[in-house]
Specification:
This protein is an alpha+beta fold. It has helices at about 10-20, 25-35, 150-155, 180-195, 215-220, 270-280, 300-305, 330-345, and strands at about 45, 50-55, 60-70, 75-80, 85-95, 105-110, 115-120, 140-150, 160-165, 170, 175, 205-210, 225-235, 255-260, 285-290, 310-320, 325-330. About 45% of the residues are buried.
């Protein structure tokens, strides 16, 4: 496979992924998106809840696509003292399995900036024999900033945000790091806008907030997006690895962009799905169908907007979702950019 090149702005993906942005705290990510998208559209605004809405003028009816800015993480709930040291208790936002937290590097976003820390747990040597091998619940975990109790309480407060502390790695076909969910969606959207600069159809791009907190931002934005069809861009599990039964493999890593048929919140519009499949087949874009399953995306927020909107999902097969090392395949991301750009051009 060819090396990562400037033809696609991979540095933008790195900046998006490494910028922290918990639900309700997406301002830094929104600034990165704004700077990247503003030269490609005719107008950009931010609504009251924090969604960024970009508009490109042209003949109606308009089309829309959406990706969310927030990432999974946590919030500080308190600080405990032990032997003069300060240990941070926390709760997660966005559904992180506790076994994916232990030993991970974290950043605590306190009043004086980001503090490096690590998630700790009780060692096996002090766990009762009958509890050995059991997954410790999040409530029993703690974050260790390696500070005295005095320094910890002076620099950290309940309500401070906690994110994974991880750099993006680009190597051959692999894209690995934190927050691929859903900075990949933002990246694909911006790249497709760049490749279709000059397309004549009216369109809207929404960078939404608080998807990981219950799909809160997209419905608010959709009320102000007069489009006839919308596509949500997000990750989807790639479980084609050992110890997973064939019927549980919804998508395959490296198999191309995934076109979603149904999830736990949305039945994709059949005509829109057919349109995407036809485009992919005609232009030989690697693609696969995402088998119906659980989860949900911002598509549900657009589908119910105004008088109803045709909606579907373009998804990126990703291993190890909601961890510090979410892993995507370059082929799938490039296919997603190609297919979204083709859809924009077709609408034009």
């Amino acid at each position: 496979m060819k090396p990562f090149t400037a033809a696609t702005n991979w540095d933008l993906l790195r900046k998006l992924c490494e910028t922290p942005g918990l639900p309700g705290r997406e301002a830094a990510v929104r600034e990165v998106v704004d700077q990247a998208v503003r030269p490609l559209v005719d107008g950009v605004r931010t609504d009251r809840i924090g969604n960024l809405i970009a508009h490109r003028a042209g003949p109606e009816p308009a089309v829309a696509f959406v990706a969310h800015m927030d990432e999974v993480g946590g919030l500080v709930t308190g600080i405990e003292e032990c032997e003069g040291q300060g240990y941070v208790r926390f709760r997660t936002i966005g559904g992180i399995e506790p076994q994916n937290l232990v030993g991970q590097r974290m950043a605590i976003h306190g009043r004086s900036g980001a503090l490096p820390a690590v998630v700790g747990s009780r060692p096996d040597s002090v766990v009762k024999p009958e509890a050995l091998g059991r997954i410790q619940p999040t409530e029993s975990l703690f974050i260790d900033p390696c500070l005295s109790i005095e320094d910890a309480t002076a620099r950290i407060s309940p309500g401070d945000g906690v994110t994974f502390d991880q750099c993006l790695v680009l190597r051959e076909q692999m894209i690995r790091g934190k927050a691929l969910d859903d900075r990949l969606g933002l990246f694909v959207s911006i790249e497709a806008l760049r490749r279709t600069y000059g397309a004549s159809r009216a369109l809207f791009f929404v960078a939404s907030v608080q998807e990981e907190a219950g799909i809160c931002g997209a419905p608010a934005a959709a009320r102000h997006v007069p489009a006839q069809a919308a596509i949500s861009l997000d990750i989807t599990p790639a479980r084609d690895y050992p110890n997973v039964a064939a019927q549980d493999v919804m998508t395959r890593w490296g198999g191309g962009v995934s076109i979603g048929v149904a999830d736990g919140r949305t039945l994709s519009d059949r005509s829109l799905v057919a349109e995407l499949v036809a485009l992919a087949e005609r232009h030989r874009v690697p693609h696969q169908m995402r088998a119906p399953g659980g989860g949900g995306t911002d598509a549900s927020g657009f589908q119910l907007a105004q008088e109803g909107m045709r909606a579907a999902n373009l998804l990126f097969p990703t291993r190890y979702g909601h961890t510090a090392i979410e892993t995507a395949h370059r082929r799938d991301i490039e296919a997603a950019i190609d297919l979204l750009a083709l859809w924009i051009e077709k609408a034009s």
